[in-house]
Request: fold
Amino acid sequence: MRESASTASPSPEINGQPRLNRRQAAKVRTRQKVLDAARGLFAQRGYEPATIRDIAKGAGMSTGAVFANFQDKAELFEAVLTEDMAGLAEVMKNGAGTGATRDRLVNALSAGYHGSFDQLPLFQAIVARSWFQPVAAETRQREATQGLIQVISDILRAGIGAGELKQDADVVLLTELTWDAYLSNYRRAAYDGWSVSQLADHMGRQVDALLAGVVTGQ
Reply:
């Protein structure tokens, strides 16, 4: 017996999202393959040495298929960056734990190092490209890293709310200085061979210096 239209027709949505047809689903899978291949090469080689040709080869497709999904390597890099920074923000947020503001901040930043150490060239590329990219690209890169910066800001604001930090503490400035210190430390890993533990210990001393003037009772 033929099923009624109401039971035979596929649902137009899955978990509140529109159902993709076969062609759309294939395009999504292709795009993700390109992103995964690019992520691996950017993490291994950095931005400049990773070519579209090699990325296409790693994804098992033609360069034309790559360009069908991304305008150029810069757009591809930004897509990888956006995905990875969102994931790393969650790692830092979950790694903060509980306790004093100083400890939560150091724990979050240390978790960030642990979660990204195997992608060191990618972070070198982030720093290097920030000096030589158009304003629009820099704006998008800042948006991609905003989640990580927000983790730092939220911890500091929570410290003020808990009375651990002074009410007049400049959260915006402290966040900026902490983020700059965190990012610059990747150079020590890249050029001086520092381990994750060394980075975390050094970051701890930097946080102590940054918070020295704003901890209540001092």
